[in-house]
Specification:
Length: 131
C-alpha cells in the first residue's frame, strides 16, 4: 500500500514533467517555425470583356514567390501572336489588359497563356471562341 507521501511525490513528478513538455511546445516554434512558405504564381480574375467596338482580355498575375519573377504573356488572336514580358516583384500583383480591335479578328479564336521564367508549361491558359 502506498502512503500519502509517495502519492504526493508522484503527483509532483508528473506535474514537473507536464510543465517541461509544455515548455518544449511553447519554445519549439521559436527555434523551428512550422510556417510553410508559399512559393507559387497564379493568374486570377480572368475575363473577356466586350464593349461593342472591341474585346479586352483582363486578368491578374499574382507572384507568391519569395523573389522577383519574370513572366511571359502570349495572346493569340486568329493565329497571330502578341508576346509581352512582365517583371513582377516579390509578393506583387500585375493587372494585364489586352485590347482586341474588331479589325484584328474575324470573330474567331482568342487565347492567352502565361509562362513563368524557366518553365515550358504555362501556369495558366485559356481560349475564348468568337461568335
Amino acid at each position: 500500500m502506498m502512503t500519502p507521501n509517495q502519492n504526493s511525490m508522484k503527483l509532483k513528478a508528473l506535474y514537473i514533467v507536464s510543465l517541461l513538455v509544455l515548455g518544449v511546445f511553447v519554445v519549439l516554434p521559436f527555434f523551428h517555425p512550422t510556417v510553410s512558405e508559399t512559393a507559387y504564381s497564379e493568374v486570377s480574375r480572368m475575363q473577356l470583356l466586350e464593349n461593342g467596338t472591341e474585346r479586352i482580355i483582363l486578368f491578374d498575375i499574382v507572384n507568391h514567390e519569395q523573389k522577383d519573377m519574370n513572366y511571359t504573356v502570349t495572346v493569340t488572336v486568329d493565329g497571330k501572336n502578341d508576346t509581352e514580358e512582365v517583371l513582377l516583384r516579390e509578393g506583387g500583383v500585375f493587372t494585364y489588359a489586352h485590347h482586341i480591335h474588331p479589325e484584328r479578328t474575324a470573330g474567331g479564336e482568342i487565347s492567352f497563356a502565361v509562362y513563368k521564367e524557366g518553365m515550358s508549361a504555362p501556369i495558366e491558359e485559356a481560349t475564348y471562341f468568337g461568335r
